[in-house]
Each structure stands twice: as C-alpha cells, then as structure tokens.
Amino acid sequence: PFTACINHCGVSVIRKFTSLKMERFKSNRGAHINSCYDATLDEPPVYEETNFSNEEHRTVRPSVMSAFGHDTLDRVPNIDFYRNAGSLSGQRVVRPSLQELHDVFQKTVEDDVEKSDGTPSDDLESAEPLDSSKGAVRFGWIRGVLVRCMLNIWGVMLFIRLSWVFGQAGWGLGIVVILLSCVVTTITGLSMSAICTNGVVRGGGAYYLISRSLGPEFGGSIGLIFAFANAVAVAMYVVGFAETVVDLLIEHNALMIDPINDIRIVGCITVVLLLGISVAGMEWEAKAQILLLVILLVAIVNVFVGTAIPATEDKKSKGFFSYQSKIFLENFTPDFRNGETFFSVFAIFFPAATGILAGANISGDLRDPQAAIPKGTLLAILITGVTYLGVALCVGKCINSITIFRNLCTRTFAIACDFGYDFSSCEVESCKFGLMNNFQVMTMVSGFGPLIIAGTFSATLSSALASLVSAPKVFQALCKDNIYKALYFFAKGHGKNNEPIRGYVLTFIISVAFILIGNLNTIAPIISNFFLASYALINFSCFHASYARSPGWRPAYKYYNMWLSLFGALLCCVVMFVINWWAALLTYGIEILLYIYVTVKKPDVNWGSSTQAVTFVSSVSNALSLSGVEDHVKNFRPQILVLTGSAQNRPPLLDLAHSFTKNYGLCITCEVFGPKSEVLPEMNAGMESNQLWLVKRKRKAFYAAVACENFREGTESLLQASGLGRMKPNTLMIGFKKNWQIAGKDEVDAFDFEYGTVMLRMDEGLDVSHIIKPFSVDFASKIRPKAPPRSSICSCWCYPPPPSPSPHLLHLFFFFSVSVNSVPPQIAKMNEKLMESSGLFKKKQPKGTIDVWWLFDDGGLTLLLPYILTTRKKWKDCKLRIFIAGEPGRSEADREEMKSLLHKFRIKCSDINVIDEIHIKPSLYFNSTRTFKEMIDPFRLHEGSKDTAHAEAMKKEHPWKITDQELSNFEEKTNLQMRLNEVLQENSKSANLIIVSMPIARKGSVSDYLYMAWLDALTRNLPPTLLIRGNHKSVLTFYS
C-alpha cells in the first residue's frame, strides 16, 4: 500500500510506508517504536524533480508527514540533533534552521546531515566510543569500577603497613587515620559522582572530569601531575610486593645480593611482567584482576579466621597471645617512634585511599560511566573502609598480639610476664618481631600464612596493574586534547581498544626509576600530595560548577552539597601541608607553572567550563554594581565605538583605538549591513569569525554588527544601543573618507548622542579590504573575492560607499589575492604602500613627537587621548608637544597659562608653542584657496548669477548644495581651515602623529559638503592626523 501526501507547495511526495515500518521494526530488533519519531529524518533529504501547475520545473525538498497530522519541516525532539559536530558515536542531524521555517519557501539544496572528513574530532566528546560489536572490551559497574577500586584500595597497606600504622598510632588514632582518609575519599567520591553525571563521560578519568569542569588550564596542569602520580604509584605497589618477596628470601637464607638491591631486582622484573599483561590488552588485564580479587578475598577471610585460632607456643614467643582485653586497652594509646608523628603515619597510609579513582581512570572503557562511576566508587569506599577497620580492630582487640608486639621493646613488660613471657631483652637487643619491626606480621596472625603471602602478592600486584593501566590512559586523554603539543606523540592508540602502547612504555620507565629508590616509606609521601591535589580540584570543580548556577549544571546524582565539596577541597589542601609542607609547596609550584603555561599557550578548545560561567556571573554582577554609581571625572576613560566595517578591514583605525583602550577600556568594532533581507545570513556568519580574528590578533575589543535598510539607521542604532550599563561607549572613532566627493549623501550626527568624536586620516588610506584575503577557515579551499563591506565610514557625518565595483575591478582584486605579479604595476605599488601604512600603529614608534593642537576647549579629550598614548609601550619614545592659538602680543602669557594648566593636570610635555598668526589669510604659496575652490566646485549651486525665482527653484531641487550665501557667510571659517593646514605643515610635518581639535558646524547652517571640504582642507598632505572633538564635558580634573 502507498500513502500520498501533498506538501505546502503542492509537491506530491509518495512514500512506501509498509516497507519503511518493516525496516524500522528490524532496526529496533522488535522493540517498541515511538510513532512520533521517523528514522528517515536522520538521513539526508531526497530532492525530487517536480512539475508545478505553472509549468515550472525545479528541484524541491519534500515535506514530511509529522505526528501532528499535517506536512511540516519541523522535527520532533531527537538525540541526534544534539550531538557534537564530527561525532563518530552517531551521525549528527541538523534540524531545520529558523530561516527555513520562517522565511518564504524556497528551494533548499543542503543536506540535513553534517558530513565529517572521516577523522575523529580532537575533542574527546566527539571521539568514537568503544563498540562491543567491533571486539572492544566494555565493562559494567562491578568489573569496571567496584572490583578495580576495591583491589586498588586493598593494596600494599592492608597486609604490609596496616599493622605498622596501628603500632605507631595505637588503635585509637589508627581508627582516626582510617576515618580521616575515608572522609576525604567520600567527599571526593560525592563530588566526582555529581560531575560525571552531568553529561557524557569519555576516557581520561580525573583529568577529563576536571578539565571539562574547570577548563583546560586546571585540567592540563593537574592531568599531567595525576598521570605522573599514577606512574609513581606503580612503583609504590611493586616495591611493596618486592619487600614481601625479599622477606621470604631472607627467611630461607636465599638473598641474591642484599635486601635493598634484591628489592630493586625483584621490582624491575615484576614491572616488566605487568607491562606485558597490560600491553596484551584490557581483556587480559581484566581476567588477571578477577583472579587477583579471588585470592585477595580468601586472604582477608584468612586473617579473620586466624584471629579465632588459639595461639601456638611459637606465636606466643613472638608476642602473639590471641584475644586479651588487657593488651587491647594497653594498645589504645599511640607510641610514635623514630621521629614519626600522626601526620607522617597518615601520609604513609593515605595512598591506600587513592584507589577510589581506579574505576574513573578507565572511564573510556566503561559501558555507562555516568551510572558506573558513582555506584561502584562509593560502594568500594564503604566496603574497603569497613574492611580496614574490621581487620585493624580484630587484630588490635581480639588478637592481643598487636599490643604485645608493639610493647616487645618498649614500656613495661608486665603484661607479657602475666602470660609467662619475658621480653626485657628487647631493651638491649634489636627485635625482629613486633608491629613496627616486622612488616610481615599479618602472615603470623593468619590461620594459614602462605595465603597471606598470596594475598599480599595479589593486593600489591592488582594495585600496581590498575595504576599501570590508569596512568597511560589518563595521559593519552591529555595528549589527545593536544594541550601540550610536544606530548601529542603519546596520543596514538593501538588495537581494538585503542591501547596507549607509547604511554605504557613511558609509565614503565618512570616506575622503574622510582623502584630503584627501593624504600616504600620514601615513595608513599611523594604521591600522597599529588593525589590530594587531584582530589582537591575534583571537589573544587563540583563547588565551582554549583556556585556558577549555570543552567547547564544538571547532575543526575543529587546527593552532594557545594559547601561540603568546598570543605573537602580545603581539607585536602590542609592535609597536603600537614603531611609534607615542602612537597605540598612543590606540588602547587609545579601546578601553577603548568597552569601559566597552558594559559599563555591558549589551547584551541572550548568545553563550556564552569570558569566561563563564573566569569559571566561576575561580569554581570560587576556591571550591575557599576550601574548604581554615578560617573566621576577622575574615573573617566575612553570607551570607543570604532566604525571599522569588518574587523580586519581598517587596521590603523583598530590599532590606534586599541592603543587608547588596551586592557583598561571598552573598544567595540562595528559594521553596518543593509538591507536586512539580503545580508542577515552573511552578518550572522561573520559575527563569530570577526570576534575570533580580534582574539587571534590579541585585540581587546568586541565586534558588533547591525543590519538596517539604510546606513543612517544602522549607525544611529549602534550609537544608541551599544554597550551595557556604565560600560557604554562615549567616543566615536571613524576614518576619514577620501572619496567623499563621489559618495552618496546620508549623514549621521554623533554629537546628537553626546559622543566625543575622533577621526583618523592617513594619506595612503585606511581600507585594505580589497587586498586582504577573507578571514575564513576554509579560505584555502575556496579562494574567492569578497564584496567590500556595505558600510564605509568617513566622519561624524558619514556617507555610504560608492556603488559596487565593476566586474573588471573584482577581476583585478581576485588575481591580486592570488598573485601580486598579475596586478598592474601602478596598482601593485599603491597597494604595497597601503599595506605598509596599515601596519604603522602595530609596531613600536620611533623617537619623535606627538603634536597636539589644542585649539578649542572640548572638555579635555583632545589632551587626554595623546597623554594615554604616551603611557603605552609602543609610544613611550614619543614626546608631547602642545600647540595653542594665542592673541598677538601676549604669547608668553598664554604659554605660562597653558604651562600652569598642564602642571595641575600632571601632564608632562616637551614644549608649548603659541601660534598667534592663525587669523591671517591663507598664503598664496600653498595654493590652498585655489585647491579648495576646485574641491567644492561640483557641489556649488552658483545661484548668484540667476534671478531670484530661478535661484529658489534650484535650492529646492538641490537642497544639499553649497549656496553662494553660505560660502560668503562662512568665508572666515573656511580661510581658518586652510590657514591651519599651512601652519600644521610648517610646524608638524615631521611629527609621528598630529592631533588637532575638530572644527564643529551648526546644524542647518553648514551644508554637508562644505563641512567635509573643511576637514579635507585642514588635514591634507600631513602625517597621520587625528581630529578630536570631545562632548564638552570635563574628562580632566586637577582635584584629588
């Protein structure tokens, strides 16, 4: 059966629903099918050749019959719409855009499915998950997390150091040691549970959680330390195993060399064998872990069984008297020896707690990390914590040998004498037995000693194996993110599980280096601080994300508290310093250096970190608090709105504006598009690329664009709506338009909005848009000319650009973009000069002067801006020279007045010049008058020679032209501009930069073209010149 449906355009689309339903049933393996979900929507749309009623024949995209009973392009919610671009875990589907749904229906020839180049994205979120169908090993929460965490926590400490810890601290403080470790790990486990349930978790363990929460700076620094700590942990566990083996060799008088060297030899051989198991793959490693767990459980049970068996005479001679309450009470208090303290003992024990991250470290190999990590980790903490307390109390309370062992060589021997044994000889001879002298005491306590030895082997080897797997996988995830480019070599994986073979080799080298130390007590405190730093950041990540109140922070695990996480972070930091203050300082020093390195390098990643969220919250809060305070003249700083067009089109304008604002003021580069319907897609696409261009060029500025029907509306919108609260532009900066004579007429008056105005003129020009290549990530594959921007700003009265360039000019531009040799020599030379001048303000300025012609008091902006320039590094070799207009006969008095004013303003200058000949007419030598007349002639009305009626008609027909009456009324002001240009050429021709007070014209009295002619005449044939006019509100003050 067939079903036909007619779409909105009258297109007949026929679908074979029966076949479709069968395919859907097969693909779902017979499971329930959501009737509102159409699997065909995940596929690229099929475009059909269709004949319309008006005989039009074109390709159209068919609509779909939705669950709503009518044809629509709208889609029902689907997970594929939310996948990352380039994701290999599933094909990303692109939902219809707002324009597709809202705009007038038109042919759309774009695939709905984003294609990938076939390579995985650098972002781990887009990495291909392991698929069991391809033979990769995936673990559930028991084998993947619970078993690994228990094996890692039941490590070397359980059989080798637990008795030593309780011998030093007594069972009272010994319990505190265990509980304090459990408090740290439990809080960290809760924080980790919240973080890992707040989105998809990929490979990388603690590094992944921290980096995706706090950002690459924190993640990159702690990731390297954490991977290194795991590598060192391999050495710690292997040395524990080697100690047990060497003790057996000593017992059977079979030492190879001496105890310390035998530990090194056995350790190196062991780590080689473990490396072979790890390289063989996760499947072999998992099987080995199960076998080791069985042995370990049997050994733990053996300890409890051994406590219930009555002590033999041999055991009693070594201080084991089975359960005795007197010994238990005697054993309650601590007996620290050899310089040990509570915190040094805690430092030795705490590495046992580091096993809580064993499951998280292989997060990339878990079937469902979000569910497995919280459940397995917290349950492992509970089980192992109870086990440690049970074993310790059982040996300390039920088996009195613990206290007796401790008291073999110390205190009184009355209790031992009560049981018929005299250990007083231990006062003069070294003891071979006792909690603090015999690390293999658990073997004697147990029911069957060899099982404890096997359990010790199992505990140490399983922990070493887990760390040997964890370190390379965390390191591989770090290298894949390419935060440290030199380490990208280690990102490559091999085999079906993407095994980090190179990382295994590196971990092997590091562990061997630490095994050669051969002393477990030396190694343990080193990694304690590294792991505590990781725990601190995991806790802080949870607190930070909660504090930011970001809508994206929605962890499925609800049993956490942000303040508890903060307490956990602070507790970890305190414990770090208490354990070993110099190691803590070293750890933080390394972390800070790595943080600074990553911050400076600025890796090209964006993970939506809580740091970004907190920065946003702080910015909004600061902006709101700033809005409640009135502006004060002492805090005035230029906040500049720069009309550059596209951010890269006018480099001198942007560079100079950036010199004014730097990191201390607001700078917004703006572009006006129009009309709306034609340019909205282009404008939206350019927003991000222009902002990225500013970031890459280290320009501390924002980019803003508007689309309006005409240029005037767009510019006025920018002037009125730009900024936020007190962070609002107060100065408009524009470029002088050289071709103002051929431009259309569309003025915008910045003074209406009380903006100060700054205009830059350079003889070579400012706009390089016809030379530079378009800023686009795919430019290399799509070299094409880019139309010039629709807004080309000239002055406070701004004019739109001339008509679009001819095909011939576009042809020239295209070839110039590709090869300079194909451009005519004259144009190439002009472009070369233009490009050279465009970088004028990027480089350090040579020794010279900034000449400030402060002719009119505008509130001080004309003086403040050049002073700000002299505080910048690029302009520090330039001296200020002040020029003022003075009355004839009182030049010296005017100079002293200005000198006094500058002194009160605390602005230094090298010279003050008083010009008292500005009022005279322009000199014939410069031909200024003739040049000016030729400039304005095309815009004059010439109504003087006509009769009155004819003249009035001409004024109505051409109201924008310059009348003879207007020219006569403003003759003096016209002459002033020409005379000023002559004086400027005489005094400031060699200046690095000239700053001149901008003339102002009354609205309705001076025509636009006459005003533009004044500006042109004033700034012609000069070095780079800035025309400045403040808004006549004081920006300088001499009051404190």
Structure characterization notes:
With 1040 residues, the protein is α/β, with parallel strands linked by helices. It is 49% helix and 7% strand. A hairpin with a 5-residue loop joins strand 3 and strand 4 (57-60). The radius of gyration is 40 Å and the shape is elongated. The N and C termini lie far apart (89 Å). Mean pLDDT is 76; it is low at 1-66, 107-133, 398-414 and 774-821.
Task: Write a concise keyword list for the protein shown above.
ten-stranded mixed sheet; 33 helices; alpha/beta; elongated; two-stranded antiparallel sheet; 1040 residues; 7% strand
In short:
Keywords: Cell membrane, Chloride, Glycoprotein, Ion transport, Membrane, Phosphoprotein, Potassium, Potassium transport, Sodium, Sodium transport, Symport, Transmembrane, Transmembrane helix, Transport. With 1040 residues, the chain is of the alpha/beta class.
Lay out the secondary structure:
Elements (H helix, E strand, L loop, with lengths): L2 E4 L5 E4 L1 H11 L20 E4 L5 E4 L3 E2 L5 E2 L25 H5 L38 H13 L2 H41 L8 H10 L1 H36 L7 H22 L1 H27 L4 H5 L7 H6 L11 H8 L19 H30 L2 H6 L7 H5 L22 H5 L3 H32 L20 H15 L4 H29 L13 H18 L1 H21 L8 H18 L12 E4 L7 H11 L5 E7 L2 H21 L5 E6 L3 H11 L9 E5 L20 E6 L45 H12 L6 H14 L9 E6 L7 H10 L7 E8 L5 H15 L5 E5 L12 H9 L11 H10 L6 H6 L1 H17 L5 E5 L10 H12 L5 E5 L11
Parallel strand pairs: 7-8, 7-10, 8-9, 10-11, 12-13, 12-15, 13-14, 15-16
Antiparallel strand pairs: 1-2, 3-4, 5-6, 11-16
Helix pairs in contact: 3-8, 3-12, 3-16, 4-11, 4-12, 4-16, 4-18, 4-19, 5-6, 5-16, 5-18, 6-7, 6-16, 6-17, 6-18, 6-20, 7-8, 7-16, 7-17, 8-12, 8-16, 11-18, 16-17, 18-19, 18-20, 18-21, 19-20, 29-33, 32-33
